[in-house]
Amino acid sequence: MKRVFFYLISLLLIIFSIEIGLQVINGVASLFRKKQENNPLQLYYQDKKMADQIWKETHDALKDRDYAQFLGWADRDYHGLYINEDQQSGRKTWNPRVPPGQTLAKVFFLGGSSGWGFGVADDNTIPSDLSKMLNNPRPQFQVFNYSVPGYIFMQGIIHLELLLKEGQSPQYVIFYDGFNEIFAAHQHGIAGTVHNLFMTRERLKRDTMKYRTLVWNSTREAIRKYCMIYKAIYSLGSTIDESKMFQEVAQNYSDQQLRSLAHDIVEDYKKSMNLLDSLSKAYNFKYICFWQPSMFTEKKLFDQEANIDPWLKNEAFKKIYLYTNEYLQKEKIPHFYFLANILENRTEPVYIDVAHISEKGNQIVAGVILKYMQKEFFLTNTDNNAAKMHQ
Prior knowledge:
391 residues; 14 helices; 3-stranded antiparallel β-sheet; 8 strands; alpha/beta; Rossmann fold; 5-stranded parallel β-sheet; globular; 2 domains; single chain
């Protein structure tokens, strides 16, 4: 027993020594590691300090979101140099000053992090660019960005319902979705679910867990997050087999199962559209929905884009994405426009990662959205004047 105890203590000391050594090496290496390697915005901003500040504020704004009834999580108050958000009006959006005695038409913009403006300043989100275009040369519209990072289409509709219940009365509503629907379905293996549902369930269970189980789960989570030995072994395993980098439920689905899941994503989206259509008739607003672009649907990628996000290596996710887009393009859905291909003629990089795009990319998207708004919305004489300014 003494010998076993001695070997056990020796093994623990060796493991502890290796862990301390790896922590020291990682700490020293981080001092020499270039910041732009972890900040893709460095590719798109000449002012490097500005790029770092926007990147920092983006992640700070997304931390510690509060639970919201019916939604899971919602907007929160955050105020920075470039990113500002509050619970009442959503992400800060460029809008013109309201002329005395004039009422501006309200445009609600809803979606996930791409609509919210991941990695860009307040004045360069898609809703801000759209507002600038709509209000050139004179103020007529007020755009509100109610997008929330991580939301799927159905969450956006529920969010809109709550706003309508509070007495908000938009004339026009725009939805900009796509990536989150596919990601959540890939994550859980079924269509129509929200992001990280298993994590939410795990946290809710903690209140009823026995103390021993709670300690074990917390320890296991801490090891995954902080232990360098675990990270080294996991990284080595991922290098040998890249599929181990990803732990989503649909990761090991057969091709037939992936196609079936993609079909379900489209059907779920169509059902949500039917609900939105009923809301529009009940509350007297016009709506239009857009399916966003992503790296997975691009025929060509610039070198900077191709090496920017490890998710590009996820073949299962890529298949679901392509199958979903394939099925979606065969559908004839009223008030719906497929924008997955609008960046294929770009002459420079625009992608920050597989789903998010730069300021210039947002301008392109906003211009295309405006074109379809002119087609769908601007039927009155008042709105026709605004539409003609951009034709």
